[in-house]
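Below is how a single chain appears once it has passed through the pipeline. First comes the sequence as given, then the structure the pipeline wrote out for it. We keep one example in the README because the format questions we get most often are answered faster by looking than by reading.
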Amino acid sequence: MAEHNSINFEQAQALLYQHLQEMAPGESLHGIELINLLRMNIHFIEAIIAQHPRLGELSGPRMGILMRLMAEEDMGNSQGVNPTRLSHYQNVKKNTVSSLISGLEEQGLVERTINPEDKRGFNIRLTRSGRELIAASMPERICFLNQVTAVLTDAEKRQMISLLIKLRGSLIKMRHHPEDCSDTNKNPKGK
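Resulting structure:
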């Protein structure tokens, strides 16, 4: 059955790329293939973590919020971070970050405090339990993610990290200067 699904997936992918090539004749499909693979791999990683007996209690996005709050605290920010800033850091919508924060708050891992600069708003801070959970779960999480990426050699991991950092830099530039995005069609690479 798994082989049958694999063949159907590969056939569907081939048809998709054929249609894409027809829609954009002469254009390389490397960009869309890379982005689709990145997105697919992230979904697989999140699904694998969710199935893990000890790691599944804290999703990647929730752990990301805790890690961000810990970093802010370690840099001297004892006031916490407002939810809007957290949504920007985590690259999620405000209602998504609100849901994540509520779940973390119910678990006693974060707390809301009045924003000293704007008494109508509030900030989110890491609790002692949140910091303890990070310290207790991170060694196993790191080990697990090393197992997930064990198919790659150390040299391949370093190369992939370097390339993804380079891509992130380009994406950040494009996000802050969208007018530059149209310039990429003047000198396309990777054809």
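The domain at 60-128 is CATH 1.10.10.10 (Arc Repressor Mutant, subunit A).

See the next section for the split statistics.
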